[in-house]
Amino acid sequence: MVVQVKHNTNHSGKTMDGAQQKVEANILLLGAENVGKSALTVRFLTRRFIGEYGEIESIYNHNDKIDGRDISFNIWDSLYPQNCETTESITEKHLQWADGLILVYSICDRSSFEVVRQQVHRIKQAKKTSGVSPIIIVGNKRDLQHQRTVSSEEGRLLALSADCGFFEISAAEAYHGVLLVFHELFDLIREARALKKGGFKGIVRSMSAVFGRKRTE
Ligand SMILES: Nc1nc2c(ncn2[C@@H]2O[C@H](COP(=O)(O)OP(=O)(O)OP(=O)(O)O)[C@@H](O)[C@H]2O)c(=O)[nH]1
């Protein structure tokens, strides 16, 4: 059961001028407990790391600007359920809602890496016919190098084998890595939408929009 609390944040603090249509993207965060899903979400929403987050499952709304375009992110910070199998915790409802998924593990918790492996498998199986929404795998808690039990290489290989994006970050240490995760996922969602809409021409258009743009950071 989802407790749907809507929070609204806006990085720029500016009002919409109404001239351009806002693009919406539904992002679902999955992963084992205690890996930093809420930390990642709150970092993106507020640029801050507050340490403890409580156990509330929420959908947040957040307005951002990418390439001059207004984006409305709906971010579902899911709770990892205690009493069911890893794969059962991802329902059809989750998958239909999500335009893109972020699967989080902790680099110092091997079992959380295995949870992500199972979740990727489950998502790919469930969406075999209708097509999988883009996925980014995130190894969090990069600041805890001395406690690392999952190598970067393992994370990267899993992502490669499942056709997912991959980042290692520390939600505790920096905002920039978290921002990159969400922006990269948005680019992938944009490509997937273009592909659905316009076939090959659509993807070429979308890719040139991505590669042709100047990165400021
Ligand atoms: N050192 C370190 N600690 C982190 C990092 N991200 C989160 N944490 C800590 O890890 C703990 C769990 O973080 P949460 O964001 O609540 O994890 P969650 O995945 O949302 O957990 P559930 O609500 O149980 O699903 C908290 O004590 C955070 O302060 C990180 O990058 N580095």
UniProtKB/TrEMBL annotation:
Matching entries from Gene3D superfamilies are given as: P-loop containing nucleotide triphosphate hydrolases
Task: Say which domain of life the source belongs to.
Answer: Eukaryota
Q: What class of enzyme is it?
A: hydrolase
Q: Which SUPFAM superfamilies match?
A: P-loop containing nucleoside triphosphate hydrolases
Q: Which reaction does it catalyse?
A: GTP + H2O = GDP + phosphate + H(+)
Which residue ranges run through the membrane? Answer: none
Q: Name one GO molecular function term.
A: G protein activity
Keyword hit for Hydrolase: yes
Question: Where does the secretion signal sit in this chain?
Answer: none
Recorded hits in PROSITE patterns, A to Z, give: RAB, RAS
Give the EC number(s) listed in the UniProt record: 3.6.5.2
Which keywords appear in this protein's UniProt record, sorted alphabetically? GTP-binding, Hydrolase, Nucleotide-binding
Q: Which family does it belong to?
A: Belongs to the small GTPase superfamily. Ras family.
Q: What is this protein called?
A: small monomeric GTPase
